[in-house]
Amino acid sequence: MEQQWTEEIKSNDSLFSINFKEVWQYRDLLMMLVKKEYITFYKQTILGPIWFFIQPILTTSIYVLLFGQIAKLSTDGSPQIAFYLSGITLWNYFSESLTKGSSVFRDNAAVMGKVYFPRLIMPLSIVVSGLMKFSIQFTLFICVILYFTFVKGLIQPNLWVLATPFLLLLMAALSLGLGMIFSALTTKYKDLSFLLTFGIQLLMYASPVVYSVTSIPEQYKWILIANPLTGIFECFRYGFLGSGSFEPSSLIMTTCITLIILGVGVLVFNKVEKSFMDTV
Amino acid sequence: MKNLAIQAENISKQYRLGEVGTGTLSHDLNRFWHKMRGNEDPYLKIGESNDRSTKGISDYVWSLQDINFEIQQGDAIGIIGRNGAGKSTLLKLLSKVTKPTTGSFKVNGRIASLLEVGTGFNPEMTGRENIYLNGAILGMRRHEITRKLAEIIDFSGVERYIDTPVKRYSSGMYVRLAFAVAAHLESEILIVDEVLAVGDAEFQKKCLGKMRDVSKGEGRTILFVSHNLAAVKTLCNNGIYLKNGLLNYSGVIDATIETYLKDTKGQIGVPVSLRTDKIGNKKIQISDIVLKDGNDNLISEIFSGNSLKIEFYFKKDEHVDISKMIVACNFSDSYENIIVGWVSDEMEQNFNISLKNKFTLEIPNVNLRPNNYSLNYQISYKTTAPQDFCDVLQNAVSLTVLDTNFFNPDIKIRSGHSSLMQANFI
Predict the structure, then answer these.
(1) Nearest to B4 among A3, A10, A28 (CB)
(2) Distance between alpha carbon A195 and the CA centroid of its chain, in Å?
(3) pLDDT band per the 50, 70, 90 thresholds, residue A192
(4) What is the mean pLDDT of chain B?
(5) Which end of chain B is less crowded, N or C, counting CB atoms within 10 A of the terminal residue's CB?
């Protein structure tokens, strides 16, 4: 009888040998990791999920004061609170997923050094558990939107609101892809983790978080056009606040860039995951 | 013919020594440059075999080199070797934690590894939640765990604490729970690395029993790394002996252990003063050990029950006060289990300050079963703390105990590794 093998562990795998089937087999692990994130956050805190509200409320207040009242940046006529809160809600999700994702190898070296599981599960779990916090902050945002729509009558949300799940998916994919690229590189070149910390800060100012695209002088607009986040933020604001300069074409470009980054991220991550334990 | 579970072909693993991080970029660029021109990786040639005690020239070292073996389904394989021989590296490669530098494994079946107990446990989560989390990390589906939950909790013996966060657990409970999860994995191949070092004797027994069930009863394949040769011997049927990253011997477990022991005792014939495997600060050094019988004849064999004198010849630094010397010595069996031993401070014996170069241990009756024993000693100064070790040597000299009629002049005592003691059945 011919000897059967179910698996081969080789020294050299091709760059594209990614075992998505295996990732799917470990989907229960993904759920457990998300649950773990949830439990470790709430246990032994008194206020629990309220912390998720406090942060955006305080940040929004400061932005309203600093950028709205003092710097008097344009919000395209939208109420300042709704405008800044929309930016912060989205940005928080993106930056947190990226920050956590980029250190996924270092943070989990202890477990990964002992047992094998498809490493992709880890960054995926970060992106998914980030959604939990996002949904809480998004609820706050919805309350503010409802207030300004029906009580004050200052904004008119339109059907682009329905694109939100897609926008979220794009942002998740983008932070996942970038996070994986950085996490793969930082196992060998630690310098990059310093670069990333302030890189994320800079990226916030290169994205329409605290300002609107229309208020940017023509000669700097290329930065915003090149930034895949711009499309996401503009579409989100256009849907909920009914303001801004959203063009569907920018969303298509965002989608393309995101897919490329995600693809590169998965490849680089897959390449590094098999031997990162030796260098981390 | 039985089916193979694992086939290893030319497995090698290279590690870089020293500070990883300096020069990685230049090495990477150099590698890339060679690869572009279709040349071999320049750093693969320069590794050396992994003998940690000698200083090497190269920064790269082969932790494993050209390992080939086949493991049949249902076998229990013991992997033995000294610290740093590459045992854990081999298991890491097999469990896919890191990949081999060259070569490949072919595997038939799901591999689950139990490398270190409790990895992936989250202290904030309860025992029950951790069973699910740990099970999922080890590759179990949720419904598999649910099906086995009662069995796992029962095996772990921590039922009372199962809904308490595991940070409140004692380390023993932690281990019990973790082993219970791993032992109930439905994998065809189970990798176990030194988990039995923790946990109490009762639980260790339970673990060994479970592992025996797994390999013999369920026909699953086990790879077991341990320094406890007795456990390896009882559990495994085949063995692999690694030495400095090379496969030294593989075969039936008894022969493997024998080869390993012969190797570690390789220096037993060498005079004590020339031995290179001594440790200690050498303030006091044993230069020779002489075994004598009651009539002061030099011996290496003794009839059980006869009297024995062990003469230790020593050298010491000038300022050392010999009355503060503490001597421990013992006889161990060929599996390095200590059978009987003596420590001078427990015996309230102070050495005479005028002692020049020799002290003697007199044993009126060597009441041991016939077999081979080896003498180990440990000389320390003032305390028995490790920093005060002057001279420590395992397997310093060997002693063969010949057959005896300990209880009755007409009845021979069977051979074995244990001491004898007068007693009566009434």
Answers:
(1) A3
(2) 18
(3) confident
(4) 81
(5) C
Phi and psi based region of residue B38 (left: phi greater than 0; alpha: psi -120 to 50; beta: remaining)? left
Round to whole Å and give the CA distance between A155 and B325: 90
Q: Taking CB atoms and an 8 Å cutoff, what residues of chain A touch B102?
A: 11
| Residue A11 to residue B99, Cβ atoms within 8 A | yes
Residue B93 near residue B99 (C-beta atoms within 8 A): yes
* CB contact set of A68 (below 8 Å; sequence gap of 6+): A75, A80, A84
Contact across the interface for A9 and B124, Cβ inside 8 Å:
no
Residues from chain B contacting residue A45 (CB–CB below 8 Å): none
Residue of A278, A11, A14 whose CA lies nearest to B10 = A11
pTM above 0.95, yes or no: no
Q: Where are the domains of chain B?
A: 4-109+188-264, 274-402
For the beta carbon of residue A257, count every other beta carbon within 10 angstroms: 18
Q: Which chain A residues contact residue B4 at CB under 8 A? A: 3
Does B165 sit within 8 Å of A114, measured CB to CB? Answer: no
Across B196-211, average pLDDT: 71
Q: Which of B133, B149, B221 to mutate to test the interface with A (most CBs of A within 10 A)?
A: B133
| Domain B274-402, CATH number (from 3.20.20.150, 3.90.580.10, 2.70.50.60, 3.40.50.720) | 2.70.50.60
Residues 6 or more apart whose Cβ sits within 8 Å of residue A202: none
pLDDT at A262: 93
User: In the predicted model, is pLDDT for residue B282 greater than 80?
Assistant: yes
- Report pLDDT digits (tens) over A41-57: 777 677 777 777 888 88
Q: Are B102 and A11 in contact (CB < 8 Å)?
A: yes
What is the nearest CA distance from A205 to chain B, expressed in angstroms?
31
Domain B4-109+188-264, classified CATH 3.40.50.300, yes or no: yes
Strands B284-293 and B189-193: unpaired
Q: What is the pLDDT of residues B372-397, one digit of tens each?
A: 898 999 998 888 777 788 888 888 88
CB contact under 8 A, A6 and B25: no
How close does chain B come to A127, measured CA to CA in Å? 18
pLDDT of A223 over the 80 cut: yes
Q: Which residues of B touch A7 (CB under 8 A)?
A: 106-108
B261: closest CA of chain A, how far (Å): 29
Read off the pLDDT of residues A72-109 as tens digits, 9 standing for 90 and up: 888 887 888 889 999 999 999 999 999 998 888 888 88
Q: Do B136 and A29 touch (CB under 8 A)?
A: yes
pLDDT at A39: 81
Q: Which residues of A191-220 are buried (b: 16+ CB within 10 A; e: fewer)?
A: ebbeebeeebeebbeebbbbbbbeeeeeee
Give strand pairing partners of B371. Answer: B401
Q: What is the pLDDT of residues A224-239, one digit of tens each?
A: 888 889 889 989 988 8
